[in-house]
Amino acid sequence: MSEAVSTHAGPATAGRPQSTQGPQIQRQFVNFAFYKLDPEFRRLSAEEKQRAREEFISLHSQAHPGMICLSYSTAGLRPDCDFLLWRISLSADDFQAQTARINKSRLGGFLTTPWSFVSMTKRSMYIDKVDPFHTAESRTHIIPGKRKFLFVYPFVKTREWYLLPLERRQELMDGHIKIGNEFPSVKLNTTYSFGLDDQEFVVAFETEELRDFLDLVMKLRETESSKYTHRDTPIFTCIQLPMQKILDQLF
Amino acid sequence: MSEAVSTHAGPATAGRPQSTQGPQIQRQFVNFAFYKLDPEFRRLSAEEKQRAREEFISLHSQAHPGMICLSYSTAGLRPDCDFLLWRISLSADDFQAQTARINKSRLGGFLTTPWSFVSMTKRSMYIDKVDPFHTAESRTHIIPGKRKFLFVYPFVKTREWYLLPLERRQELMDGHIKIGNEFPSVKLNTTYSFGLDDQEFVVAFETEELRDFLDLVMKLRETESSKYTHRDTPIFTCIQLPMQKILDQLF
Amino acid sequence: MSEAVSTHAGPATAGRPQSTQGPQIQRQFVNFAFYKLDPEFRRLSAEEKQRAREEFISLHSQAHPGMICLSYSTAGLRPDCDFLLWRISLSADDFQAQTARINKSRLGGFLTTPWSFVSMTKRSMYIDKVDPFHTAESRTHIIPGKRKFLFVYPFVKTREWYLLPLERRQELMDGHIKIGNEFPSVKLNTTYSFGLDDQEFVVAFETEELRDFLDLVMKLRETESSKYTHRDTPIFTCIQLPMQKILDQLF
Amino acid sequence: MSEAVSTHAGPATAGRPQSTQGPQIQRQFVNFAFYKLDPEFRRLSAEEKQRAREEFISLHSQAHPGMICLSYSTAGLRPDCDFLLWRISLSADDFQAQTARINKSRLGGFLTTPWSFVSMTKRSMYIDKVDPFHTAESRTHIIPGKRKFLFVYPFVKTREWYLLPLERRQELMDGHIKIGNEFPSVKLNTTYSFGLDDQEFVVAFETEELRDFLDLVMKLRETESSKYTHRDTPIFTCIQLPMQKILDQLF
Amino acid sequence: MSEAVSTHAGPATAGRPQSTQGPQIQRQFVNFAFYKLDPEFRRLSAEEKQRAREEFISLHSQAHPGMICLSYSTAGLRPDCDFLLWRISLSADDFQAQTARINKSRLGGFLTTPWSFVSMTKRSMYIDKVDPFHTAESRTHIIPGKRKFLFVYPFVKTREWYLLPLERRQELMDGHIKIGNEFPSVKLNTTYSFGLDDQEFVVAFETEELRDFLDLVMKLRETESSKYTHRDTPIFTCIQLPMQKILDQLF
Fold first, then answer.
1. Residue D220 forms contact with A (CB below 8 Å)
2. I want to staple B72 with a disulfide (CB 3.0 to 4.6 A). Which of B120, B232, B238, C27 is the partner?
3. Cα B56 vs. chain centroid, distance in angstroms?
4. Which residues of chain A make contact with B8, given a CB cutoff of 8 A?
């Protein structure tokens, strides 16, 4: 990386990049965008607030073809954000398009984004529950947003981890997975951020029972793989809610 | 965690999650929500401030069925916040409901939340002193808010701690507890945040005598368990006060 | 700490806490409250500024019975604050009372508190130079605020320090104190924050000659005790000034 | 460094500095300036926004003789910035001149710069694709901005790295470069910031395929050189867009 | 430090402090004050801006007897500040006096100070180029501000450094200085902050050729003394400019 020189940019690489892997696998982009409402918005007149509310709910309810977008509230749980948009798409452009719509809205003049994480799946793993055509595939794919609670955090392993032999890493992961299997109520899914964002992974867990996740994480502390964790914060506890209800909490 | 794949979301886990533990124990959610008043509020007219004050006191005095909510001032002690709401409930939804009411209030347009910590008890351990039905149980439960001073901090242990044999950890905790017992005036209680928030524990101490807590913590530094502390800040010194008195301090 | 359970709150501890130490020693609370003026205040009319100035000087000059309150300027020295109130009292309530008065003032609508440190003395060590009754005791007590310069910083030692045998620590401190004695112009005093605030100590040095303190600290770097320092920043260089002169610097 | 004394400034060095290296090589300055639009701008009238938009697009389209300036959007991807200006020039003065023009614009009253990185090339390595005179040289030079995606991050190696023997470092870099060559679709180029900015390098990667970069970085984690990384964040995923389209996303 | 008790303040130290060193050497105070203009200022009318500009230029051009004050622009180079005042004086009071004048100016209502570093020289090392009386002394003193570029950073060494034997430290510094001598175009000077500010040193380099400094710092990475660096950021690249030109860049 650091020794790279400009001659890397030769004619050989001028054309369309060639993947070193076999046939292209559909991979999905994932974005966890956390929003915070500026308290100043609350000082506006009831009428102004109502107009902003209606416009934003309408904006949010519009279908984003090819993009899954789920809404969660973090109000009263996290100090630094109010709600989360969990976005999944085949193209990062879709995140930009929706962000543009939010930016142009009335509420957009009072929203900030304290956190946002970008990642990719290894293959298409999410499907849309409102897509009429998903059937057979659904068994091996995740339909996100089917549980009340979502736990999200960026994850970075120590560099020592990556220098362990592959078999040793598998061994450590086996111990980790064994404990995960004791908590079938917790659905875990992992996305990859290497080079795209500050973390290596964005991990998201869905469950109906908050306490199960707490107990799982507590138990995982005692696995040996745990000592290869470099960073696993901030951790966001999110509650799935329709946008209408989220805005009802905020103003 | 990081190796999890989407097939975890199979039909086997589609139903209601099953806990791996025995009969369900009532566990409580705890939230330490720290608020800061925007100094800009102080520039408003005396009348506007008075209306905001009355509305907020009325809002705060409303009973939140099933939720304990205690108020503490940190004014003049912490630079980054003004007061704390210590909330305890059987459901995290209650925190959201009360937060929504605050957000809709006049004062809500000038409040920010520099810190907020979410945690759970291992079992129901708090009861409400204003609940007419608590009697026998009270002996083994905590009635929070009965002392003038509250000390709160998030707590993270080193990963080495969790890899010690259980007996060794018990041994170290015994030394720790022994010193705690020398300070009977300090009531300590621990809640758990693994996976729910950035810390592993939120620790809260209640006492009538500030100096006793200082001496206790100083003495605990010399225990061997102390070296397994990864993070134990920020530390909040809080003084219990009715909301009316807190607002009298703030504007 | 982390293993504490709710049964700690039994009837045995319900009464007035009993100290494990002998007869109660008078101990003082100390607060170093750093204030910053919002630049927006400077845009107000000359008249508005004058009124705020007069009100604040009057407020500050009022006697706070039982509380020592000294003012220092950090303008032009620290980027993150403008002045310091060094407050000493037998009760933390006094800090809250004075903070309330500041919050209610005109200037209070434009003041923020980037830093504030709370601590305690081991025994009463400060006395008030304007208190007519201090005489004999003065010889063993500090009359704070008698030098032009004050250096303040929060201080945290490594956990390794506390696990050294007491004799070893004494030995290391002896080397430290020996160097301190070479600089008699620097008056040092230490207060304790264990459990009350993020640091373990708040250290304050008073001197007439800035350079003496610089040379002292530089020389202390070479003592062995120096390697047990975990954190000793931020460091504040403060110049004692009456509030009138401080405000003259600020707007 | 720390022992340097003022006598270094003698007559011998008073004249024009003499490089210790052979003939002067043309080296380019590089600046990655990240901008954020204050949400308050969105509250302005449609007309005011339109005027600011036109002015800024016109300003941006003006040729900056001798300076390459490319625009990228980070909207919807990074929480802390909205767009990037990638600037390359023979003189740092050009960055100041363009910054002055931005500062004087209407939009400039609402733009902040959360991040900005300054660096230099080892020799002239970038050329301008709109410069009519570039031909033969183009083969060994980079024409920046020819791919859709740009990944930028500041990079700091551990001090241990620099104390390894040169041959050992070359060996480690060989392993690193070997993997880079497996991803010909990713064009990498490195610039140097030692002493000019907080990082040692600013690394920029261009590609048409986001996933290729993700896979490359993930694979590089397993090289031994990886453990000499001290810091490689924040990482910015940027999408090349004309300024007009960027502003369309922002308001 | 931490074991200090109040009896240190006895009659023996009540008088004027006595330095432990021989005859007093004139030592200078140094302040690097970095300013940022609030973008909101740019939204003012052209007339208001013009008045603020004229007032500030006039204020800045006034002689500060005994104080050297040089101005540098960081616009377009650092994201967190716009300009630097490099101030040198025999008394810290002079920094406060000039800061007071800035605070009272129109522009002062829109200026913040993201960074400010205070330090001292070991002896008087700077002289004023506009002082008519400097002649013979000039050969051993620095006339600051004679080069286009200034590089400033706070510097903290590891505590291990200070516990090395003096001869070993000298040896390591010799290797360091040897490389410095290969770059005669770079004038380096070191000031001391121990106990006065968060860093141990503030290091300032002046040069006409940016690239020489880059190459020097890069080469110094390979010296053994480099591994005793604990912190050497933030690093500021500054361009000397008269205040008039700096303001022309800012609005």
1. yes
2. B238
3. 21
4. 180, 187-189
